[in-house]
Amino acid sequence: MTKTIEDIKKLVEPDRIHRSLYSDPELFALEQERIFESTWVYMGHESQVKENGDYMTLNIGRKPVIMVRGRDGNINVLHNQCTHRGAKVAGKKCGNARAFRCCYHGWTFKTDGTLIGVPHKGGYEETHFDIKDPKFSLKVVRSQSYRGFIFANLSSKGADLKEFLGDAASSIDNMIERSPGGDLEITGGVLRYRHNCNWKFFVDNLNDTMHPMVTHQSVGDACQSYIDELPKDTPPTREMDIVAPFGSSYENFDMMGVSVGPKGHAFTGGTDSIHSNYMEVDGYIEAMHKSYGEEKTKEILCVNRHNTIYYPSLTIKGAIQSIRIIRPISVNETEIETWTFRLKGAPDDMLHRTMLYSRLINSPSSMVGSDDLEAYTRLSEGLMSGGSEWVDMSRFIGREERPDGNMTRAIGTSDISLRNQYAAWLGYMTDVPQQEEL
């Protein structure tokens, strides 16, 4: 059965959503078209393509693309599709290329997409083919950078990137300002974690502050037991710093607060989060004071946010300098990538802390991430029961919500983040001509 706009509207109510949003293959296909292929999706950081000719191959929804730094130094996003027979012109995950040459018939394209070479071209005489005609060049995807973070949009409609990010962009600003050198760079490899669940379970969970006390109870208890057994004067370790806050109380998460904005973006935390009481890294504060002065350093470091969601494709942890990218594979399969940043001008120990956090929390062998994945699996299986058709998201609805710039602030354990995401989901999924059947 083909879903109409009216069918889709019936699946989202102000305080609940229908369970089929997580399991319907038709809805998943529509999400790729109406969400991932119709709005700003995160591609990568400019430091991942440092040199002219450096490139990465990615997908926007179902569409293969290339992010490449051109010979002029500009970063382009191109459709990874030869304009001759349609083969992908770049097959590797990443590399450096003077040009892209199709493996099938050898058509060759510059790093800005321009077609520059066609073998045995005499066969095209007296045809419609003209090597100078732009229609034979690789198609350029609309892309923009926000302070080195590259996003692309397959649609020519809608807001520019800065407007799309709105006040939530301040989380990127803060992460950059935490660098004494005023800049970031991706370093090290990537942690890829395949989740056998719908992509929305992961996004739902990012700012769900009601689950840690239950889902991660065993991790918190184990960490606390270990701490209690240590000799009295044992200095704290970085592992304690990172793991122990996952056993925090409901009251602590309430105090953190949550902010939501247009387009489904949101962040937990403010001046307090699970990252706010980490041990200082030797030499870091001194480096910040030298760059910014004491007052500005205090202003920068008093911002402590947990997860910031740039819906639908990116989440960042500014206080930890790591990001995770959401890549939907199928209705019940999602790939999550974790990348770490180096703060330029900061002691190497800052990077070591970031990498330790990612291994402890975000890796496939993590104690915390495996808890979440178990919950996602049970959610997927439980919702197939049909015992209840609806998923509740009513916590603190209409209460303790107040304006905060172009965002709305609420108590930390409110479901406002979920309600905001699904309002955005509904907007994307129904933003088509009313007479069109999806």
What tags apply to this protein structure?
single chain; 438 residues; alpha+beta; Rieske Iron-sulfur Protein; Naphthalene 1,2-dioxygenase Alpha Subunit, Chain A, domain 1; 2 domains; nine-stranded antiparallel β-sheet; four-stranded antiparallel β-sheet; 14 helices; 22 strands; 30% helix; globular
Describe the protein.
The protein has 438 residues and is of the alpha+beta class. The protein has 14 helices and 22 strands. The chain has helices at residues 5-9, 25-36, 161-165, 170-177, 199-206, 212-215, 217-229, 238-243, 250-256, 284-292, 294-301, 348-362, 367-383, 416-429; strands spanning 12-13, 16-18, 41-45, 54-60, 63-69, 75-79, 94-96, 100-101, 108-109, 115-117, 142-146, 149-153, 184-195, 258-260, 266-270, 304-310, 314-317, 322-330, 333-343, 390-392, 402-404, 407-410. The strands form 5 sheets. The chain has a 9-stranded antiparallel beta sheet with strand order 13-19-18-17-16-15-14-22-21, with helices on both faces. Helix 10 (284-292) crosses helix 11 (294-301).
Please summarize what this structure is.
The protein has helices at 5-9, 25-36, 161-165, 170-177, 199-206, 212-215, 217-229, 238-243, 250-256, 284-292, 294-301, 348-362, 367-383, 416-429; strands at 12-13, 16-18, 41-45, 54-60, 63-69, 75-79, 94-96, 100-101, 108-109, 115-117, 142-146, 149-153, 184-195, 258-260, 266-270, 304-310, 314-317, 322-330, 333-343, 390-392, 402-404, 407-410. By secondary structure, it is of the alpha+beta class.
